[in-house]
Amino acid sequence: MHIADHYCNFIYCSPVPDILKNYYTLESRTERKELVMGKKIISVAMFVFLFGCNASSEKSDNKMTDLIYIDKESTQCNQNGLSLSDTFSQLTNEGISIKSSQCGILTGIAVTSMCGADDLQINIHKINHGDTKKSLKLGFKLISDLDKKGMGYKITKCNK
Q: In 3D, which of 146, 159, 158 has the Cα closest to residue 66?
């Protein structure tokens, strides 16, 4: 087998389809344009199909779960405040099932840089949508509400 009979990229090599082998042997420009146009149509159709499937799965996942957060109540220059396990336990003790947990920091807000001032650290939990009202009563807030306030968040490494 000759190397020109294979198409290689960074991940794998595969046989070159006959339709591509024939590209340079096509006699007329019209034949070449038709071949290129056909490949473009197929590429666009595959992109739309794959993007549509991905978008619908994300929507269904968002209907089933919510991201919530709570202020760690920690301060600058100190290793204090609520740990991730503290807020995890607070939720599970109320019968709330947690899918995942992570630490973060609020963005889009300014604070005084001074020892003892708030450091904007938060604990984030992914929970079932049905448990959201119960978590809000415990003092947690929806991550999605941050956008409404012109704020955001960034995932960070947990200190404790």
A: 146
Q: What is the phi/psi pair of residue 114, to 5°?
A: -160, 135
Return the top range by mean pLDDT from 40-44, 56-60, 75-79, 128-132. 128-132
- Sign of torsion over alpha carbons 85, 89, 92, 96: negative
Question: How many other CB atoms are found less than 10 A from the CB of residue 9?
Answer: 7
- Whether the full predicted model's pTM is greater than 0.70, yes or no, is no
Q: Domain spans of the chain?
A: 13-61, 64-156
Instruction: Report yes or no: 66 and 146 within 8 Å, Cβ to Cβ.
Output: no
Average pLDDT over residues 97-116: 91
Query: What is the CATH code of the structural domain delimited by 64-156?
Result: 3.30.70
